[in-house]
Amino acid sequence: MKSFITFAAIVSVANAQITTLCAQYGSYTSGAYSVNNNLWGESAGSGSQCTKVNSISGSGVSWSTTWTWSGGSSSVKSYANSGVSFTKKLVSQVNSIPTSVQWSYDNTNINADVAYDLFTAANINHVTYSGDYELMIWLGRYGNIQPIGSQIATATIDGTSWALWYGSNGSQKTYSFVASSPIKSFSTDIKHFFNYLTQNQGFPASSQYLIDLQFGTEPFTGGPATLSVSNWSANVQ
Ligand SMILES: *[C@@H]1O[C@H](CO)[C@@H](O)[C@H](O)[C@H]1NC(C)=O
Ligand SMILES: *[C@@H]1O[C@H](CO)[C@@H](O)[C@H](O)[C@H]1NC(C)=O
User: Fold this and answer.
1) Which atom of ligand 1 is nearest to the CA of 55?
2) Span of the secretion signal (predicted)?
């Protein structure tokens, strides 16, 4: 007779949570980092979205966002994100923009991206929710969606290949680097993406100030789905 002993390890998970943001522009800031619900495009469809702040320290931020959206299938409903504040500088005077992130989606049968979003402007006092230029880095692309414009190149940066898309929206010129499959653990120097654009696309680094740097998700339709960002960090040096 064999006897089996079942060993149940009861793991106590620290589930501390700072706050849950459900208002359209709900936002929480601690030190240099912020977490923003940012349902800027919610009126294009119907649904809801709330963002939880799990932890924020000087070394990074942990958060998640849960959403369900329908209608307006070609419109972004929101950009829940984590952001970091920094001293605005000309892109040519930025030495490096080190960042790392680990994220996952619990439901990938969705129309949504997971992306960095940066704005630059010639006017250092430009509003920070848009710019003369927008640089996006799409780490995830789910469903039937695409960046603004069309693909203009394939870019290799630090050994990773990206589809480079370009398009404009009004006076804002948007470059989107799109990963060929989801990159859920990512560590890079975003300055290298600006260097690529300066060298290959005529990006005017010496007259554009970096004014905003965020990471988050843009849902079009689907859900319920939760993006969990276990740790995001970034800074501008
Ligand atoms: C988050 O990432 C940063 C940068 O890699 C690291 O220094 C920090 O220790 C990480 N924090 C946690 C809670 O894992
Ligand atoms: C262009 O910008 C407007 C105003 O911010 C926004 O509503 C619209 O969704 C944008 N279009 C695209 C294709 O990104």
Assistant:
1) 13
2) 1-16
Q: Which residues of 86-113 are buried (b: 16+ CB within 10 A; e: fewer)?
A: bebebbeebeebebebebbbeeeebbbb
The residue contributing the CA closest to ligand 2 atom 11 is: 169
The CATH fold of domain 9-234: Jelly Rolls (2.60.120)
Catalytic residue among 42, 113, 117, 134: 134
> Is-catalytic flag, 218?
yes
Model pLDDT for residues 9-19, shown as the tens digit of each residue: 444 444 468 99
Distance 76 CA to ligand 2 centre (A): 8
Prior bond of 147 cis (ω within 30°)? no
| Strands 98-105 and 209-234, bridge-based pairing | antiparallel
Q: How far apart are CA 41 and CA 21, in angstroms?
A: 16
Is 42 a residue of the active site? no
The active-site residue, picked from 51, 218, 220, 233, is 218
pTM: 0.92
Structure-block tokens of residue 138: 């799409």
What pLDDT, in 10s, does the model give residues 45-65?
A: 999 999 999 999 999 999 999
Residue with CA closest to ligand 2 atom 10: 169
| CA 210, chain centre distance (Å) | 16
